[in-house]
Design brief:
It is a single chain. About 40% of the residues lie in helices and about 20% in strands. With about 475 residues, the protein is of the alpha/beta class. The protein has 3 domains: about 70 residues, no CATH class; about 120 residues, Aspartate Aminotransferase, domain 1 (Alpha-Beta Complex), CATH 3.90.1150; about 240 residues, Aspartate Aminotransferase, domain 2. The protein has a 7-stranded mixed beta sheet, with helices on both faces. The chain has a 5-stranded mixed beta sheet with strand order 2-12-13-16-15. The longest helix has 21 residues. The model has no long low-confidence stretch (mean pLDDT about 90).
């Protein structure tokens, strides 16, 4: 007779089983109860659905092993390294920029021991965490001063609260952006306590639009780099230099939310729409904000650079303590920024820039190496094909990068089923589907990650 719901024991009766009691003593009562509820819940669902279901020997060792496995699974961190084979180099869902080895070493060093985070070693008195990277940022951007917070959204909010709280901010309608997570610039302006005054139209805004909007209540002209979308056709926008001149003449502050932020010119690699931070400041922008974990290639951070007097007001603002950067991110940012100075070459040392600038022939070579290894596993349906990768991270949406991808299929598995299986590996492999085929883009994959991809395919093939 098939089992029924009445054959499922109560949790307490399972806890009274000697083998289960040993599990509870080894781990904890709470974890064991949670595991038992999960296991019996799955059995209950199977019985209710009418699926064939054989109940285990609840008093046996195999059941106790199942409980242990469930507890170990609950104890495993849900945050895991993955292989990014999507071809999107700065993938927000996959943690954005991978860090350079020197940045990881710096984080380990300051995390393993006390540091002089807020101690001045020369005077023995309290110091400022802002001092550790300010001079370096200024050297690389030409700014008078700089400060770092925990992300670029915080940088925008802090800057507007300190400069325009209770007053008005003039911004172009074509630059009132929304980024991931429904983060909308008009909402941030409102949260800062400032009043938004929109000027121009979606596709055309002129200097005269800004000039006509400035009155005694105006504090800031806000420019936002539209890095995650593009308006083409009948368009116009004022040059930064012209806006800077207007701001100076009318004694208001010109702020630019750059978003990604790049420290070196990437036009040699076909990436022409991302302005260099130093050039923005040279154009006369008073304050610029950009991210640490996008094109800069470092940890999550919001970097604010510009006029000394404005930066001083940001450092003294009450919100600063709530948005300040932590010591691990600060150490990683410092180490990453140093890779932009001689004798280092950031195009080789910073992983994001290395992936963007890597010769296409090298990307193709990596694809053929993976394809050969997959064939040795007995996977016959493998091909290397030219494709396009993308920067990602809300940056350069219409500019792709030539790449090569490995197209692979397994008998009996649809493209979506194969993608799901790849995500279940010890190191999940995240690819993409194009025209019903699974592609593993080699521009966003490193040589060191190829063995992990092979192990995952080997596991899938042997199931």
């Amino acid at each position: 007779m098939p089992p029924s719901l009445r054959d499922l024991p109560q949790i307490q009766s399972l806890l009274d089983q000697p083998n289960v009691a040993q599990v509870a003593a080894r781990y904890s009562h709470g974890e064991t109860v949670a595991a038992l509820r999960d296991i019996t819940g799955q059995l209950r669902s199977a019985l209710l659905s009418g699926r064939d279901c054989e109940l285990p020997d609840f008093a046996g060792n195999l059941f106790a092993d199942t409980v242990v496995a469930a507890i170990e699974a609950m104890r495993t961190s849900s945050l895991r390294p993955v292989v990014n084979a999507t071809g999107i180099i700065i993938h927000t869902n996959l943690g954005r920029a991978r860090l350079a080895p020197s940045a990881l070493s710096a984080m380990q060093a300051v995390g393993a021991a006390p540091t002089n985070l807020e101690l001045n070693l020369d005077t023995g008195k309290r110091g400022s965490r802002h001092d550790h990277v300010e001079a370096l940022i200024c050297d690389l951007t030409g700014a008078e001063a700089a400060v770092v917070v925990n992300n670029c959204a915080a940088a925008v909010l802090l800057s507007l609260m300190a400069t325009a709280g209770g007053r008005s901010v003039v911004a172009s309608r074509g630059e009132l952006i929304e980024i991931g997570g429904s983060f909308r610039l008009p909402d941030v302006i409102a949260q800062s306590g400032a009043t938004l005054r929109e000027v121009g139209t979606t596709n055309k805004t002129r200097v005269s639009d800004y000039a006509d909007a400035i009155d005694a209540d105006t504090a800031v002209l806000l420019k936002s780099h539209t890095s995650n979308f593009k308006i083409v056709g009948f368009t116009a926008a004022p040059a930064r230099g012209d806006l800077a001149q207007l701001a100076a003449e009318r004694e208001v502050i010109l702020i630019e939310d750059l978003g990604s932020g790049v420290l070196i010119d990437l036009s040699a690699f076909g990436l022409t729409d991302e302005p260099v931070v130093a050039d923005i400041l040279k154009a006369g922008v008073d304050l610029v904000m950009f991210s640490g974990d996008k094109l800069l290639g470092g940890p999550q951070a919001g970097i604010i650079a510009g006029r000394r007097d404005i930066i001083a007001s940001l450092k003294a603002h009450p919100l600063m303590r709530a948005v300040r950067i932590d010591k691990l991110s600060l150490a990683a940012l410092d180490a990453t920024l140093r890779l932009y100075r001689a004798p280092f070459d950031p195009l080789k040392e910073v992983p994001v820039l290395a992936a963007l600038s890597q010769p296409l022939a090298r990307v193709k070579e990596r694809g053929h190496a993976l394809a050969d290894d997959l064939r040795q596993l007995g996977i016959a349906d493998v091909a290397v094909q030219q494709t396009a990768a993308f920067v990602g991270g809300g940056t350069l949406p219409e500019q792709d990068i030539p790449s090569f991808a490995v197209c692979v299929a397994l008998p009996g598995l649809s493209a979506h089923q194969l993608m799901a299986a790849l995500r279940q590996g010890d190191t999940p492999v995240i690819g993409r589907i194009e025209r019903g085929e699974v592609l593993l883009d080699m521009r966003s994959v490193s040589d060191a990650e190829l063995p992990a991809i092979i192990r995952t395919f080997k596991h899938i093939a042997n199931r």
